[in-house]
């Protein structure tokens, strides 16, 4: 093989194994997206524990403040996803996170012409402010305070 051909194969192998990562790849290491509802009440952030559950609630038991999406590319970065859901809900004054869900996903992270694949947890939940009926219902629900 000629030297040019070896250099070409080396470049192709490098691009194949490293991938072409997105420009914003470094931001995806840990990312929290909080989508606030336009007509949601404004609540003050607090330091109280937030109830996190996978169960839904009746619409007359709460007001939705926001939907929270957590993205992590490595499982050991910044703790557990449910704790991050609770922290994000606490910052917007929510009493609970309902319909919480956690799943795992593959990612391509990195910079242009240099990237790696990551395997990390994702999370979703609705941050809600509970009324008196919702507070009473918490005793019957499965979940935990975080």
Supply the key terms.
elongated; 3 helices; 146 residues; 38% strand; six-stranded mixed sheet; alpha+beta
Structure description:
The protein is built from three helices and six strands. The chain has one domain (3-145). The chain is elongated and about 80 Å long. It has helices at 3-18, 81-91, 132-137; strands spanning 30-36, 51-52, 62-72, 96-111, 114-130, 144-145.
Short description:
The protein is 23% helix and 38% strand. By secondary structure, the chain is of the alpha+beta class.
Helices, strands, pairings?
Elements: H1 3-18, E1 30-36, E2 51-52, E3 62-72, H2 81-91, E4 96-111, E5 114-130, H3 132-137, E6 144-145
Parallel strand pairs: 2-4
Antiparallel strand pairs: 1-3, 2-6, 3-5, 4-5
Strand order of the largest sheet: 1-3-5-4-2-6
Strand content bin: 35-45%
Order of helices and strands: HEEEHEEHE
- Total tally of structural domains: 1
Helix content percent band:
10-25%
Global mean pLDDT: 80
* Helix segment tally: 3
**Poorly predicted runs of 5 or more residues:** 21-28
Rg estimate, integer Å: 21 Å
Distance between the termini: 62 Å
For the biggest sheet, the summary is: 6 strands, mixed
Total beta strands:
6
Globally, the shape reads elongated
**Structural class by SSE content:** alpha+beta
């Amino acid at each position: 093989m000629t030297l040019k051909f070896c250099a070409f194969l080396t470049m192709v192998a490098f691009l194949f194994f490293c991938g072409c990562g997105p420009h914003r790849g470094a931001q995806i290491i840990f990312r929290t997206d909080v989508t606030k509802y336009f007509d949601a009440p404004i609540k003050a952030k607090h330091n109280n524990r937030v109830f996190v559950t996978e169960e839904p609630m009746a619409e007359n038991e709460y007001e939705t403040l926001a939907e929270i999406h957590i993205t992590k590319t490595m499982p050991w970065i910044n703790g557990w996803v449910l704790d991050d859901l609770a922290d994000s809900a606490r910052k917007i004054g929510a009493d609970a996170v309902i319909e919480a869900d956690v799943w795992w996903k593959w990612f391509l992270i990195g910079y242009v012409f240099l990237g790696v694949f990551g395997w990390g947890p994702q999370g979703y939940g609705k941050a809600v402010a509970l009324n008196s009926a919702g507070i009473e219902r918490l005793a019957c629900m499965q979940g935990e305070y975080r």
